[in-house]
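A favour, since you know our structure tokens better than I do. Just paste the record in under my message, thanks.
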Amino acid sequence: MEHDDQSMDHSPNQPIDDLSNSELGIPKGIEAPESSDSKLFRDAARTIITNYPYAKAALIVAILTLLAGIAFPLADIALSNSQDKGDPGAVHSQSLLSDGKSSPTTGAAGSVAAESLRPGTCLSGSSTDATSVSCQIAHATEVYSSAGICDEATLIAYLAGNPTVDLLRSDLTVRTSPSGICTVTFPPSLTVATSVEGALAGSNSAVLRQCVNNRSGADVDCGEKHTGEVVAVVGKNEPTVVDCNEVATKYMSRSPDDLYLQLTVGPEDFGDGFRCVVSAIGSNRLTDTLRMLGTSSVPISAY
């Protein structure tokens, strides 16, 4: 093979410091930082090229190999940093068991994931394999507190309700994790595609409230066809006497006595105690919640 030796020749009178990057075999567009190490490398390269022109090709290969060795680790570092900083392209998941514990399959990392859950985090999947998802898609579970007090009053407060007045449908499931994470799981019959935070103050609060359908003998949410709405649940050992009429007045922001042609209030046996129910009179049905009815019309129609 013939070589064009002329392209590698340098005048012996040309000072080493005057050699350009192209003469050193460094591709155009690459500017090496002038650290002490790189300066030593450059001086050595100039000496080799000046005295041994045929070493230029080998030097080019060495430089490209060195650059490639630096580039790939830097790419790995950039990817790692993008995941650590919450880059949108990174995938993070958190899982909970049915009893609210973090998934044991991820060891210590699982415990950290569970403890990092905050109120407003939505979870999807089965109760044994739930993952964090956007609240704007259908999800089965939502975190409503991380303070360790996971009772119904805390949930009602998260929903922007009044714990001393509001009641929730009976098929919501509340769980507590060992680290104090409180979650509420919705029944399969209820499709939730938004956060329920503040939901009791919204226009669709009826789906979270407790109503009854005496025709079917079932408890239903108040967004369904129903004959009455539960305004209080009283256990057998309640220390105070409960007046259903007073409770209904506070619940509806209006006395049921004003609506005696449409509504009736009374206790119904429930477990070991009873519950106060405001019911539609006759063969009528209610079509929405009575909560904070005030001066509005009663949502009632023929069954």
Q: What stands out?
A: The CA atoms of residues 149 and 180 lie 7 Å apart. The longest strand covers residues 263-270.
